[in-house]
Amino acid sequence: MESVYESQSSQAAEVNHDEKLRNVGEGEFGCSHYRRRCKIRAPCCDEIFDCRHCHNEAKNSVEVDVQKRHDIPRREIKRVICSLCSTEQDVQQYCTNCGVCMAKYFCAKCKFFDDDESKSQFHCDGCGICRTGGEENFFHCNKCGCCYSNWCKGFHRCIEKAMHHDCPVCFEYLFDSTKDISVLHCGHTLHLDCLKEMESHFQFSCPVCSKSICDMSKLWEKLDQEVAATPMPEAYQNKMADQGAVFFTLFKESKAVRQMWTW
Ligand SMILES: [Zn+2]
Ligand SMILES: [Zn+2]
Ligand SMILES: [Zn+2]
Ligand SMILES: [Zn+2]
Ligand SMILES: [Zn+2]
Ligand SMILES: [Zn+2]
Ligand SMILES: [Zn+2]
Ligand SMILES: [Zn+2]
């Protein structure tokens, strides 16, 4: 009897020990983009960076010869370097040498690491990338080829590959943009900030199809007042749709209606 208890308690101690080990350095490593306990080896230039954004910023800066500028092919990342013991190894969540968890959120498909789980990351197979904002708050539309906030389920206007194009204002590719995206009533999409920029210049029509998007400033004002109530009251949703306005734009502070979502 005694020996059974003994082995059980030593097993428990081991688990606790492992757990402690895994959590070492949590939140203490990373860059301005992500908290993570590993660095990545870029397959393109064979150099080491904190994250793909760090790579892309460094390799597309004005100091770099135009011919040599490039983005990292993120899916091709194969090797990571543990920040605690500096061991280089294949992409995985736990260091093969010291056993530390290199990030609480880990996606093997995207080769993505992030210690900050407050973003509620999730991998969408339809999109083929990781998004943020909580899986339960989004649905994937196969026709549009992207995820939308549940908030517009049932009344979003399908546009083939809705997000698979550049923002018509700033020309950044929208699908994997890390900024908030707005979906206009016509179904066209652009950055929330770019939409606000248009509004500040009194441009109230969709830059793609020229359909009216009405006076946004009043809308923002109302939304600011309503923002505490999430999801938006139903009457409100209808009202906006009736106006032919931007029927869901994803505003500041209002988590449930935040649209973008990508890392
Ligand atoms: Zn590179
Ligand atoms: Zn970075
Ligand atoms: Zn290690
Ligand atoms: Zn993923
Ligand atoms: Zn999706
Ligand atoms: Zn759709
Ligand atoms: Zn834009
Ligand atoms: Zn449009």
UniProtKB/TrEMBL annotation:
SMART domains: RING
Keywords, comma-separated and alphabetical: Metal-binding, Zinc, Zinc-finger
Domain CTCHY-type: 102-166
Highest taxon in the source lineage: Eukaryota
One GO cellular component term noted in the UniProt record for this chain: nucleus
InterPro entries documented for this protein: RCHY1_zinc-ribbon, Znf_CHY, Znf_CHY_sf, Znf_CTCHY, Znf_CTCHY_sf, Znf_RING, Znf_RING/FYVE/PHD
Record-level GO BP terms: protein ubiquitination; ubiquitin-dependent protein catabolic process
Sequence ranges assigned to domain RING-type in this UniProt record: 167-210
Start and end residues of each CHY-type domain: 24-100
Keyword Zinc-finger: yes
A single GO molecular function term of this UniProt record: ubiquitin protein ligase activity
Pfam families: zf-CHY, zf-RING_2, zinc_ribbon_6
PANTHER family: E3 UBIQUITIN-PROTEIN LIGASE RZFP34, RING FINGER AND CHY ZINC FINGER DOMAIN-CONTAINING PROTEIN 1
Protein name according to UniProt: Uncharacterized protein
Organism, as annotated: Aristolochia fimbriata (White veined hardy Dutchman's pipe vine)
